[in-house]
Input
Amino acid sequence: MLRKLAVLAATAVLCVTSLVGCGSAASSSSADKASDKDLLGRIQERGTMIVATEGDWAPWTYHDESGELTGYDVELAKEVAKKLGVEAEFQETVWDSILAGVDSGRFDVAFNGVDYTEERAKKYNFSDPYLYNFSVLVVKDDNDTIKTLEDLKGKKTANTASSTYAGLAEEYGATVDPVDSLEQTIELVTTGRVDATINAQGSIEDYLSEHPDASIKIVSTFPGQPVVVPIRQGEDCESLKNAIDAAIADLKKEGKLKELSEKYFGTDLTERQ
Output
């Protein structure tokens, strides 16, 4: 009986340790949580890398006409996972849950057009950049009063609450109406419920190609920001970051990053311009 209690106690300690550190994702098996390997080792032992993504933000991550999850980040995550010797297991969620889910261990990583910021870098490990994300200021097509970021003072924009776009809008004096998707954003702009939105250039251009009659227009474009893979901090996660960096470097050298960028964005966004 004493031996059985000792085994149970040891198991409990292992489970607690895996949850409070940089441990594995919440959806992984109990055996995965009890492993004494680091995060990369647990991912490889499990055979899957759990990837957070929105699934409704074309051309980054979206569902095609057949309902299959696809997009730049989806294909890239599969290529990176292959370099790590595993498969990518996607879990779709709203933007505002992505970073929190990585932080809590629900997801191993996220592939979702995440911009690098100094503030985020205080809390998360980031891979090397794999793309540079140009941003645009968008208004209704009959709006002639907003042409620059400075014109946003006192105006309303639509953006996901924790995005860099929301932060930028607030920095220039706008009030942000939180949304969960690009479709909601465009609807708020076209109906006049908000004055503008700041968003990824590729996403807006993709939307306009699919909806050429949409009553919106781009009035300003801003330099690209580095797009990265967020990973939890801690020594337990360093080998995963290094492996992802190596995979990204290989894919860039092989021309795969450029190929995917041209496929989904129509141009090469793998270099800062």
User: Anything to note?
Assistant: The first helix runs from residue 2 to 20.
